[in-house]
Amino acid sequence: MAETVVKIDKLVKRYKELVAVDHLSLEIKEGEVFGLLGPNGSGKTTTINCLLSLLSYDKGDIQIFGREMKPTAYDIKKDIGVVMQNVAVFEQLSVYENIDYFCGLYIKDKAERKKAVEEAIAFTGLEDFVKFKPKKLSGGLLRRLNIACGIAHKPKLIIFDEPTVAVDPQSRNKILEGIIDLNKAGATVIYTSHYMEEVEQICTRLAVMDKGRVIASGTIDELKSNVKCSETVKVEARALDDEIFEKVGELDHVFEKAYDNGELTVKYTGGKHNVVRLLNLLQNAGVHIGRVSSEQPTLNTVFLELTGKELRDKD
Q: Which pLDDT belongs to residue 26?
């Protein structure tokens, strides 16, 4: 059985009257890529800052690698890598010098550090840019540099906070592939993102936060199975009259229907062959049918149902 890498127990963080984190409990196992999702103001960043002992908190316990996390717990911190949303590198240093500097905070031996820096450069695909200053790098390359600085010392736990914001598709794919490779090499990963397709691609388990609490957690399939809507069918149906529209609502498993601008949208709670039954009803009524689509629940569906909010592209 995998060991627990992160254990947060009944964490509370207040800012005067605002409760930013409200008795939050969370466990992350060794080898997971754990997604932490939440709308703006849900408490994700505050939780991460408390986890790293960058913030004091009012109540609760935080353990990492089975030991209590404190501001002075340097033996724990040396095994943690952090890649935050805002790029944090030195503008006056080259790519190589930046990575060497951050790696040097953890690895003092020069030969060992040189090897680690070179491996981080190769891992992030920055070989052709080692002498460049950050201002000469594209947004995607700058993100890769940020990652190289955070992982060069080969941490056991890596926190990625929105690492793909405002990067091109090619760089985004490179970053995601890199995270998967880091995980395969043994790193446990905490990943926050506003891009649901990324979460579905790389996360093995996730938690949804809202108002400082974890409101749902589990694998992606487990979360999808708990939402009310199991299928959404959309049909181009011109001149659909009120009588047929009402009959649509009488079909098995229909819990919501809408008709707007010639498009019929029907949501189901379960059942099989929903599309067939709906199309049969419409055809028998002489309704002209155009394009038809059926969509299974996505993480967006889960998120919207749990929080009542849409996940924005940026914090």
A: 95
Asked if residue 157 lies in contact with residue 122, where contact means CB atoms within 8 angstroms, the answer is no
> Collapsing DSSP states into helix, strand and coil, what is residue 70?
coil
Mean pLDDT over 123-127 rounds to: 92
First to last CA, the chain: 36
Report the predicted TM-score, pTM, of the whole model to 2 decimal places: 0.84
CATH of the domain at 124: 3.40.50.300
Continuous segment of H or E residues that includes residue 113: helix 110-123
Does residue 52 lie within any of the structural domains? Answer: yes
Residue 124 shares a structural domain with residue 247: no
Residue 38 and residue 311: Cα distance in Å, rounded? Answer: 7
Dihedral angle of Cα 210, 216, 217, 220, to the nearest 10 degrees: -100
Query: How many percent of the chain have pLDDT more than 70?
Result: 98
Q: Which of 225, 250, 272 delimits the end of a domain?
A: 225
Full domain range(s) for residue 242 = 231-296
Amino acid present at 259: Y
Do 67 and 189 belong together in one domain?
yes
> Is residue 305 one of the residues assigned to a domain?
no
Closest CA to 245 of 274, 293, 285, 290: 285
Strand, helix or coil for residue 265: strand
* pLDDT tens string 145-197: 999 999 999 999 999 998 888 788 888 888 899 999 999 999 999 999 888 88
In a domain, 174, yes or no: yes
Number of domains making up the chain: 2
Is 303 among the domain residues? Answer: no
The token duo for 5 is 């890498």
- Integer Cα distance of 146 and 124 in angstroms: 10
- Answer positive or negative: Cα dihedral of 170, 175, 179, 185: positive
Q: What SS3 state is found at 78?
A: coil
CATH number of domain containing 261: 3.30.70.100
